[in-house]
Amino acid sequence: MDKKQRFKKDKIVSFLPDGDFYRKRAMQAMQREQFSDAEKYYKRALELNPEDALTQMEYGVFIMEVGRFEDAYELLRTADELDPNNEETTFYLAEVHAHLGLLREAKQYANKYIALSPDGIFVEEAHEIVEFADQEETYLEDGEVPDGEVLFMQEKARKMMEEGNFEQAIDVLEDLLADYPKAWAVHNNLALAYFYIGKEKHAEEILYDVLHEEKGNIHALCNLAVFFYYGRDEERLGSMMELLSKIKPYQVEHRYKLGATFALTGRYEEAYYWLRSLQKRGFQGDVGYYFWLSNAAYFTGHRQVAEQAYEKLLQMDPSKAGFEPWKSIEDELNPDSYEEDVSFLIEKISNPYRSERMFGLYLLGKSSHLQEIQSHPGYINVEELSASEQLFLAHSLDYEFVAENDFEKSLEKALTTCDLLYEQYKPLDQQGTHLFQMWFTLCENALVGEYAFANPKAIAAAVDYMFQSSRYDQVTKKSLAEKYDVAVATLTKYVQELIQFLPYTTD
């Protein structure tokens, strides 16, 4: 019996799939044109054996063939580091660089392949890459050939910033500047990265250095305007926008940058002029372009253009549904309410006290500035938020979640209480903010105390009564109970339960 069991165990161990097993499965899936399965197998192969140069190369070639050239670049670079003299990897590096438009590097790798394998199976294609790169270089004057590696690494840093990896982006950009100190675009992106990690002064200094060396650098001027806008420096912002209004750029990227900056800062006439001029030229923009064009068009009375632009945006990114510029008007938001006070919202979500941040994250969902603030990578770092803060943010972003434990069930009911109170006090004036500050202090303490929030309607009535009775003598439990459709006895019960969660001082 023991011998039989031991044989069975040895047999199982000998058939445990390794990285090479999954690599071969990936190749078989590719032959059957089962590409999603192929990618799944390649990923598993690399999980089991990340140091295998052959798998890195094959996966890179597979990714390149489906058009994901930047991902392919990373995989092939890794394969080359693991096995620097592999002929096939060298050729595919030439090919992926050519796809990315990095012709100088494509030519270098193609020539390296020809030297390594003068009779290799890809030698004809390698010569074609060299010839193509030579032809392209003839269209540029001496000294004007761009360094493709710089462009690629700059794009890589930009993606890091989009993902919130600002420190990594800073390292990449500073390494580039060590070799290319006059790459002004790199300086501009470095300034943005420092701004997003809270080093505003250093970010400004970088931009002023750029302008000292290259007066009129539009990206630097626009980035300064963005800094002034988010810093609520109205005086310097006004001066900068007056200067930008006098600039008449010709290049597409400058028109886009200028138009987006005008739109962000609420100068919609100027924004519409520049962004619409690009569209009339046949410019096919990205999500950001159509977002700002839609806003600029809507707020200058061009509703049809706004709707068409937003329709294109949604085709690119369906998750942006609900952020249409006309939504705030149709929802009758009061521009003078605290929901529309950007400084107030930013102060709340950046507050050192969690109850204040919870208030800010909740109120953000009621604001037409939700997209503007949420998309700013320097304001909200989801990984640093507590579990309760993350769920308040998810609520504001209309994310659906299913409560799976007692804490989440309690928080779900606390959110319902928030909504009931908001219905009574919207749009928020100063008194409304005071009520919510009291409520969120109470709410935070109750969550810590594992309170169940069993009856949201009664809790909302109790909170409203506690707030108003502390300010007005004529307030009665009966009036608040009727307002929220609960019994007076129920309201009284919850006042007694909740009062323990209010902060108090002792002598």
Automatic annotation (TrEMBL):
Q: Tell me if Repeat is a UniProt keyword of this record.
A: yes
Keywords of the record, alphabetical order, are: Repeat, TPR repeat
Pfam family name, one? TPR_19
Q: Where are the TPR repeats?
A: 19-52, 53-86
Q: Does the keyword Repeat apply?
A: yes
Q: Which InterPro entries does this entry report, sorted A to Z?
A: CellSynth/LPSAsmb/PSIAsmb, TPR-like_helical_dom_sf, TPR_rpt
> Which branch of life, at top level?
Bacteria
Q: What is this protein called?
A: Transcriptional regulator
